[in-house]
UniProtKB/TrEMBL annotation:
Entry similarity comment: Belongs to the nitroreductase family.
UniProt-listed InterPro entries: Nitroreductase-like, TM1586_NiRdase
Keyword terms: Oxidoreductase
Name the UniProt record assigns to this protein: Nitroreductase
Classification lineage: Bacteria, Bacillati, Bacillota, Tissierellia, Ezakiella
Length: 261
């Protein structure tokens, strides 16, 4: 698969057909969720989309705007640590890959300001951290240009040896990483914060989380790790992130993980 095709397949869908998910797909999803249920994260699918939507409308989503879908999947981190958030979101991206294979679209919905009582009403699970709206996407009008979020240029997110030290596009081309970093910028992030930063250092890519408006979006690190790793492995031999044992803030940045290149 080409890198550009991978990104196209990861686009969020916000409009779904009024059609239930077929039973074979539901069965396969449930089987995988049971296998993925581990010490870091758990997933559960809710077919009663109308009930969930009505319970969350005005309480979840971007500025309280909920996305209506025939089904929803809850993502619940088993622990409260920041590492649980990173690992949980990395595994959640695997769920999106599974949904794509079933012909299903999805869209992330935050529960950051949703009360426990509302979550209990919607899912009988007050600890749910995030949800995916899931369904068969409506066809998109090819003559209507989709609204796109602005993205930081590569030179603002990738550095040489240390953060703040620019790296040239020529150097990235020599390493064969120019396309990977170009497309990695399009990974989704909380409020389009794009808080990931990369440093090329001694045959390694080091991932950092930047503090944005006093907040650290650890969940976004799991997403960018998945995107980068998938695209890197389309071009090179298998690369794999190694998480830091401890996440420590230094000068507004937290070192998250390292990959040998």
């Amino acid at each position: 698969m080409l890198i550009s095709n991978f990104l196209t397949s990861r686009k969020s869908d916000r409009h779904f057909k009024n059609k239930k998910i077929n039973k074979d797909s539901l069965s396969r999803l449930e089987q995988v969720f049971n296998l993925m249920d581990n010490e870091s994260v758990s997933f559960k699918l809710y077919e009663n989309g109308k009930d969930v939507f009505e319970a969350l409308d005005g309480h979840a989503g971007y500025n309280g705007v909920m996305i209506e879908a025939p089904a929803y999947i809850t993502v619940t981190f088993k622990g409260d640590s920041n590492k649980d958030k990173v690992v949980g979101m990395y595994k959640a991206e695997d769920v999106i890959s599974l949904l794509e294979k079933e012909g299903l679209g999805s869209c992330w919905i935050g529960l950051f300001n949703t009360s426990e009582s509302v979550k209990e009403k919607a899912f009988q699970n007050k600890d749910a951290n995030l949800i995916l709206a899931v369904g068969y996407p409506k066809p998109k009008n090819p003559f209507v240009q989709e609204e796109k979020s602005e993205r930081l240029p590569v030179e603002d997110i990738v550095f040489s040896e240390e953060i703040g030290n620019p790296i040239s596009i020529d150097e990235l081309e020599q390493l064969g990483l120019d396309d990977v970093f170009y497309y990695a910028r399009f990974a989704p992030s909380t409020l389009n914060s794009q808080s990931w930063r990369f440093v090329i250092r001694q045959n390694q890519v080091v991932l950092y989380l930047k503090e944005v408006n006093g907040k650290l979006y650890y969940e976004d690190m799991g997403i960018i790790m998945y995107y980068f790793e998938q695209m890197y492995n389309m071009t090179f031999h298998k690369g794999e992130w190694k998480l830091e044992d401890n996440f420590v803030m230094h000068d507004g940045y937290v070192k998250i993980a390292t990959m040998n290149i």
